[in-house]
Amino acid sequence: MKDRALFLLSVHWPRRTAAAAAVVTALSMLAGCAGSPPQADAMAPHAAAATSEGTSPSFTVSGAVGKRASFDLAALQALPAATLTVGSNTYTGVSLWTLLNDASVGLKPDTAVRNPVLSMYAVVVGSDGYRAVVSLAEIAPESGNRVALVAYSLNGAPLGRNGVARLVMAGDVRPGRSVARLAAIEVFAAQPSGR
After folding, report:
1. Are residues 71 and 165 in contact, defined by beta-carbon separation less than 8 angstroms?
2. Which domain holds residue 165?
3. What backbone phi and psi angles, to 5 degrees, belong to 184?
4. Span between the terminal Cα atoms of the chain, in Å
5. 11 and 96 within one domain
6. Residues 146-167: tens digit of each pLDDT
7. What angle do CA 39, 191, 100 make, to 5 degrees?
8. Do residues 131 and 156 share a domain?
9. CA nearest 6: which of 22, 161, 90?
10. For the chain, how many structural domains are there in total?
């Protein structure tokens, strides 16, 4: 499946093949198509976070980080704020890259791997179970430098029924990676098939 997807991408979008390859690989791993399928519990969001479609006053960050952390509105607002305008809406929040590199979380890349961030990704989960994958290479300042915003405000007002926070991606053609009612952010490092 992965090889067919890469072939189709290279034929139709030759300039985007490298970026597409990273996305297809991450999605293949998520779907269990590449190498060994991930453990079921490794892919499941925090049990309390995704039990209903309601909103939660906080969300967790876990996985390949130095320390599991929980963020509520006050904790988000204590971090450096950023804004992102999508259409006629202006979101205020925290860059996902900034959040993951905050001292309370701290990315934990595999130092035995060359350019470890290039093989890392985050699975962003809403309280309804909706998931989106963000490659850390696409948001790292030294590589893709795209804006992925963990928004806590829309046009100057709280998100209300969309929860304490939501993920908003800059530059996506369609808003499929916009995750409302943020419940968890899980960071993973893709492992070579021989590991």
Report:
1. yes
2. 41-189
3. -160, 150
4. 22
5. no
6. 999 999 999 999 999 889 999 9
7. 85
8. yes
9. 22
10. 2
